[in-house]
Design goal:
Blueprint: H1 7-21, H2 27-34, H3 38-50, E1 54-57, E2 60-63, H4 65-72, H5 82-85, E3 87-89, E4 96-98, H6 122-127, H7 129-142, E5 173-177, E6 184-188, H8 195-205, H9 220-225, H10 234-249, H11 256-262, E7 266-267, H12 273-279, E8 288-293, H13 296-299, H14 302-311, E9 316-322, H15 328-338, E10 345-350, E11 356-361, E12 364-375, E13 378-388, H16 391-405, H17 412-445
Parallel strand pairs: 8-9, 9-10
Antiparallel strand pairs: 1-2, 3-4, 5-6, 7-13, 8-11, 11-12, 12-13
Helix pairs in contact: 1-3
Length: 446
């Protein structure tokens, strides 16, 4: 999370290049001339080697063409301290860990985040010096350009924080509802000591920070009109519960039997299952994408908007939206403008849409239902949905959408088939014309 840049490093960086240019290439000699600790010089050189400005051999350093170019242009190069750049401080738990193998993410406008509880300052870093030093030693062992004997025994003290970068790691929040009463239980994935859930309770119960406001439904008219609960189909629910349990037990062993259970009409296994069909749309066959929703900004997150641009390169996308949804027309205009083949995106404006349908025709269709529940003295929207894989039912759903909204979806396969037939016909006519010309030419010679 922390990346330290200092004037000292920039000065040493340029000085090392200048010394090499005049023939001083011994690391110890450079250290003595500059009056800078040998270990610190080594750390800067390791960074310069890592960035391809130098190479080293037998305690001597050689400037690369990239280093010479930097010196000639007096290019200002920032040295990123490897041991700081790959250090993460968890601002919820206070844990300090190596950043290796941890995937971080950006936060989008409608994301839900926990507010930081740990304040990282000079005192915090000083108090946790031993932990930071242990990680530093590990990095040196794994990536040491000078050999085992030259590893710095201890990380020099961090005296200031020149730069901080806040990054986020995704975690899954599970909400369990009692079937008998309005009682809920919350749990985070990978929350060994329940630190995340306790933090969540503290922040959502008291004064809700801005980063958690999106946990609650902010459209009051929608919240008021969607409090009636949708009756669940017991057969589909039982099928879904069985599938969910089976997937949990065999997540790393997907066989034909499990796949067939997955590809049956059922409820969505998780409230964001429908998003996976966008992300992995190349893994199954489909012709066109049809989206019907009066809540596009709630149903589709930023990753899906980006995926729509990629899909539009090769497939047609029909988006039926509610023109009264706040800000949606600007989003759709941006989507079309940024798409390489914007002619593949068809926008159909309607009023008072009460459905959320996502159809990768003719392979899979998902109808998403939103229900509003009272939690922590506020309204929270939870998603349910039914996913359909039977092509006959998907065809009927598509025809109903066309009828309800008075639109026509092109059948690309039929259009392409017509083109093939027409091409064959023209090809036959061309052959006939060529044969006539050939016969005429032959007759002329006779």
């Amino acid at each position: 999370m922390f990346d330290k840049r200092s004037y000292r490093d920039k000065f040493v960086f340029e000085s090392i290049l200048k010394f090499i240019e005049i023939g001083v290439d011994d690391i110890i000699e450079i250290s003595q001339i500059l009056g800078v600790n040998y270990n610190i010089i080594k750390e800067v050189i390791v960074d310069m080697i890592d960035q391809k400005y130098l190479v080293t051999t037998e305690n001597r350093i050689i400037m690369t063409p990239k280093g010479r170019m930097a010196l000639e242009t007096r290019k200002s190069v920032t040295i990123q301290k490897r041991f700081i750049n790959q250090l993460l401080v968890n601002l919820i738990t206070g844990e300090i860990i190596s950043g290796d193998g941890i995937i971080t993410t950006k936060v989008e406008k409608n994301d839900i985040c926990l507010n930081e509880e740990q304040k990282v300052n000079k005192e915090y870093l000083e108090n946790h010096h031993n932990i930071i030093n242990d990680i530093f030693q590990k990095y040196q062992m794994e990536d040491n350009a000078f050999g085992i004997q030259s590893i710095t025994r201890e990380l020099y003290k961090i005296l200031d924080i020149a730069y901080e970068r806040l990054v986020y790691v995704k975690n899954q929040l599970y909400i369990y509802k009692s079937s008998d009463a309005e009682e809920y239980q919350f749990a985070f994935d990978k929350d060994i000591n329940e630190q995340y859930i306790n933090c969540f309770y503290r922040q959502v119960k008291d004064s809700v920070p801005p980063c958690l406001e999106n946990f609650f439904e902010r459209d009051f008219s929608f919240a008021k009109s969607h409090k009636n609960k949708i009756l669940m189909d017991e057969k589909l629910l039982e099928r879904t519960m069985t599938l969910s349990k089976t997937l949990g037990q065999h997540s790393d062993q997907i066989d034909e039997s499990l796949l067939m259970k997955f590809l049956r009409k059922r409820y969505i296994v998780t409230d964001n299952e429908y998003k996976n069909y966008f992300v992995y749309n190349n893994d199954f066959l489909w012709d066109k994408l049809i989206i019907v929703s009066g809540r596009l900004r709630k149903i589709l997150d930023r990753s899906i908007w980006n995926e729509l641009k990629n899909i539009s390169k090769n497939k047609e996308i029909y988006i039926i939206y509610d023109q009264k949804e706040r800000g949606i027309e600007n989003e759709l205009i941006k989507l079309k403008e940024k798409s390489i083949k914007n002619q593949n995106i068809f926008l159909i404006r309607k009023n008072e849409l009460q459905q959320n349908i996502i159809c990768f025709y003719p392979s899979v269709a998902i109808e998403v239902f939103e229900e509003v529940y009272e939690m922590f003295q506020g309204a929270v929207t939870l998603k349910k949905g039914i996913v359909e894989f039977e092509q006959k039912n998907i065809q009927e759903l598509t025809e109903k959408i066309q009828k309800d909204y008075d639109i026509v979806f092109q059948d690309k396969r039929k259009v392409e088939g017509d083109k093939v037939e027409k091409s064959k016909s023209n090809f036959g006519k061309k052959d006939n014309r060529n044969q006539k010309r050939k016969n005429s030419s032959t007759n002329g010679k006779l």
